[in-house]
Specification:
This protein has 217 residues and is mostly helical. Helices cover 43% and strands 4% of the residues. The chain has helices at residues 3-7, 16-55, 60-81, 109-112, 125-130, 169-173, 202-212; strands at residues 154-155, 160-161, 183-185, 190-191. Strands 1-2 form a two-stranded antiparallel ribbon. Strands 3-4 form a two-stranded antiparallel ribbon.
Length: 217
């Protein structure tokens, strides 16, 4: 155990899960690199096919634009099917993170029931190598969740985080005050009734897509 781990109260030794996690990390990174290459090739191919089919001619500019559109669609499909590796796009040291959201959770948790702890997000390399925050072994590297959808580090009896000192950047920076999936009226503490549904937040995505007719959140 290095000095940084000791000063932050990390476990004195790595358990079997952590050893497996570190071994899988290399495999997953190589898989991610291959997936990215395949994605790029597929995006070009599908974009070319669509343009040739629709117009019978092609230009570099049009191909590039269509490639971006198709790539976004393929990325969404990969995420939905749990294929590939998902990491935080921008790495930030969570212990020096300066943009922490200021929410009076202690005065609101009996209304919202810590629903934010049911949201999915990707971990950082720092989280993974530190070995405290658990990730979904089936969908690397999303935060691990229990069968009820809550974060595996969520303590239901107190609605508190059991790893608060080591919580990831998304937990530190998330501001629920403008998130209509949770609060219909933040100031007056009126929650969105859908938070009590077992299929939240997926039901919010579906409702939004139906209202807009575009299938996007």
């Amino acid at each position: 155990m290095n000095q940084e781990q000791e000063s932050r109260g990390l476990p004195p030794s790595l358990d079997l899960r952590q050893e497996v996690a570190e071994g899988l990390f290399y495999t997953h990174l190589r898989l991610s690199q291959s997936t990215n290459k395949t994605l790029e090739s597929s995006a070009f191919l599908y974009g070319l096919i669509e343009l040739l089919s629709e117009r019978g001619l092609i230009s570099i500019e049009e191909l590039d634009e269509r490639k971006k559109v198709v790539a976004e669609r393929l990325v969404a499909q990969l995420k939905e099917n749990g294929i590939g590796v998902i990491l935080q796009d921008e790495e930030e040291d969570k212990y020096s993170f300066q943009k922490e959201a200021k929410i009076d959770c202690e005065n609101r948790v009996h209304y919202c029931h810590a629903t934010c702890c049911r949201l999915k997000f990707a971990l950082s390399k720092q989280d993974i190598f530190e070995g405290v925050i658990k990730w979904d072994l089936g969908k690397p590297y999303l935060i691990a969740q229990d069968k009820d959808g809550f974060c595996t580090h969520f303590e239901r009896s107190t609605c508190r985080c059991t790893v608060r000192e080591h919580r990831p950047v998304p937990c530190r920076g998330y501001d629920c005050s403008k998130d209509k999936r949770i609060w219909l009226d933040f100031e007056n503490k009126i929650v969105n009734p859908n938070i009590h549904r077992a299929d939240w937040p997926q039901c919010e995505v579906a409702a939004h897509a139906e209202g807009n007719g575009d299938g996007k959140l």
